[in-house]
Input
Amino acid sequence: MTKKTKVLLADDQPLLRMGFSLILEAEEAMEVCGEASDGIEAIEQTERLAPDVVLMDVRMPRMDGIEATRRITAAHPGTRVIILTTFDLDEYAFDGLRAGASAFLLKDVAPEELVHAVQLVASGDAVVAPRVTQRLLETYVRPATGEAGAPSSSAAERAEDPLLADLTPREREVLEAISEGLSNAEIAHRFFLSEATVKTHVRRILTKLHLRDRVQAVVYAYETGLVIPSQGLDY
Output
């Protein structure tokens, strides 16, 4: 019997929790193991139920989803968090990624996209909506240049993170490709590698940089200055 993906729903709107629950419970491979109406309950339920994925609203009473995400990802490495937000360019969603979330979704997501997102995040093997995630980073990570066009001192300091020196040239190339939102198959095609080799590189990158997953690798690449936000991508 295939192990079901356990999902915890954390949102202060009962109707939204009900709608998501109906969608996910219709999938044989998924189980809604619990619900929470605020961040504190989300932490308590995660401790008790050990879900694989938490769908986490950012704006909730008592404790918001950002702080709850930070505490859950720190205490439960095996649990992945998907941030729920109303707007695609939402600074709260970006803060959620920095806090340890693996992805974010709009609350009006189509049912099939919700299911697919939970599957991807549970697998730990892909970035959900990579172009939208990249656009978030382009918007909220400050460009690594000062007003005169020269690298700012803070950007230079971030770029000198000693952990980057531990990466091989190939691993650095793969990290840059991950930051573009490329899948393992696309990275393999670009560098003439097998997908198995790419997976090995990705695993080593995450281990060396002490990161949870690919989304955290993308955030890291931007915040260290390895990837510089561009001035107007064509989305």
